[in-house]
Amino acid sequence: MSSLLIRNGTVVTATDKYQADVYIEDEKVSMIGARLEVTADREIDAEGCFLFPGGIDAHTHMELPFMGTHASDTFESGTLAGLHGGTTTIIDFAIQTQGKSMQSAIEEWHRKADGHAVGDYAFHCAVTDFNDETRKEIPAVINEHGINSFKIFMAYKGALMIDDRQMYELMEELVDHGGIMTAHTENGDMVDSNIQKNLEAGNTEPRYHVLSRPAICEAEAAGRAIDLAHQTGCPFYIVHTTCEETLARVKQATLRNQKVHVETCIQYLLLDDSYYFKDGFEGAKVVMSPPLRKKKDQQALWAGIEQNLVHHVATDHCPFCMDQKAMGKDDFSKIPNGAPGIENRFELLYSEGVTKGRIGLNKFVEMSSTGAARIFGLFPRKGTIAVGSDADIIIFDPEVKHTISAETHHMNVDYNPYEGWVVQGKTRTTILRGTVAVDNGEALVGEGFGKYLKRPPFDSKV
Length: 462
Known about the structure:
This protein has helices at about 75-85, 100-115, 130-145, 165-175, 190-200, 205-210, 215-230, 245-255, 265-270, 295-305, 320-325, 345-355, 360-375, and strands at about 5-10, 15-25, 30-35, 40-45, 50-55, 55-60, 65, 70, 85-95, 120-125, 150-155, 180-185, 235-240, 260-265, 310-315, 395-405, 420-430, 435-440, 440-445. It is an alpha/beta fold. Strands 1, 2, 3, 4, 5, 16, 17, 18 and 19 form a nine-stranded mixed beta sheet that branches. An eight-stranded parallel beta sheet has the order 6-9-10-11-12-13-14-15. Strands 7-8 form a two-stranded antiparallel ribbon. β1 and β2 (about 15-25) form a beta hairpin. α3 (about 130-145) runs parallel beside α4, α4 (about 165-175) crosses α7 (about 215-230) and α7 (about 215-230) runs parallel beside α8. The mean pLDDT is about 95.
C-alpha cells in the first residue's frame, strides 16, 4: 500500500478553509489534521500553497468527429493537458449517430478513451435519435454503464438536433429511470435561416457566425426546454450558458420553485464578441456555438455565480488547429466549431475570479469541481478533500505568475485564445488518486492511467 503525506498546506473545499496535513493511502484520503504524526513513502511540503480538490470539467469533446474532421485532442493528450492545469476528471460526450443505438455510441467512446486517457473520465450520453428502440436502452445506460446524464441538441438540424416531441418524451423517460437532461439550447431553425440569409448576401467572414446566432436564439430555446422540464418534472441542466437573456429565463423558473442547473464556460466569462471582428481570419479561433457574447453578458454570468444561479464553470473543450478551421475560409458556416481550454480553465478562473475579487476561494472550488461532482453523481468520491474521498488534490501556488501561450501549453492545438494572458496563481503539483501525476510541469504518469467513472442514478438530494 503506497502512502503520501502533504504537510503545511491550506485545505480549501466548497465550504471550508483551514491549514492541515493530508495523509493519503492507496488512492484515498486517509487522515486530515494538524501536524499529523505519521510516516509515508513520500512527503511533500505545501507551505504557502492551497490544497484544492482536483478540478472537474463536465463538458469536453475529445476526438469529436465534427463537420468532416475531428477535434485535435485525443483522450490521452487532452486529459494530460488537463492534469497540467489542475483538472483531474472530465465528463465527455458519447454522441449517438442518428440511425444507430446509444449502446454503439458508448462503445465507440470507450474505444477512444479506455487505456488511453491519462486523467479520470466519465461520459454523458448525447441522444440524437430518440425512438421506440432507443427508449428501451435508457435503463441499461443508467444502471449498467453508469451514465446518468443525457444531452440533447436543439440546434445542428439534420445531424444532432431532435424535435420538441422527442425531447419531451425523453424527459418523461428520464424521470422514470433516474436521469438528468442536459441541453444545448439554441433555436436551430432560427440559426439556419440566419446562416442562409448571410451566405446569400455574400457574408462569409467569421464575424457572421456570431451575427447568425444572436442571444435570443439561445434564450428562446432555453425557455422552451425549461418549460418542458417543468411539465415533466425532469431534472434539467443547461450547458455552456452565455448570456443575460438565458439567465433571465432561469430566474423566472425559480418563481415557480423550479431548479435549473446552469453551466457556463470560462471563455464566456472572459472573452467577448469583439474577437470575431479582428482582422482577417483571426475570429475563426473562437467560432464556437453558442458564440461569445458582449461584456454585459460577462457581468451577468459573474453575478449569476454569486447568486447561485450558475453551478459549474466548464470549457466545452473542442480544439481544432488552424488548418482545420481553414475549411471555412470562404464560408463561416463550415468553420469547425470549438476552441481549446481544458488546460487553462482552472488557473484562469482563480486568477480572474479570486484574485480580482469576483468570487471567493470556496466559490472557486464549487465552480471548478464540487458543483459538477454533486450534480452528476461523483460526490463525495470526487469534488472535495475529505477522508474516504479519492485523493485528487491540486497543490496550488497563489504567488506564481505565468503567461499563457500556445508555445508552452500541452493541448494538441496550434493556437490559444488566451495568448499572452498573464495569470496569477499556478498549479504546482497535480495528484490523481494519490499518485503525483504532474509536478512542476513534469508529467509523471502516462497513457492509460485514467479510470472510467460509473455514476449512480441522478439524486437531487446529493
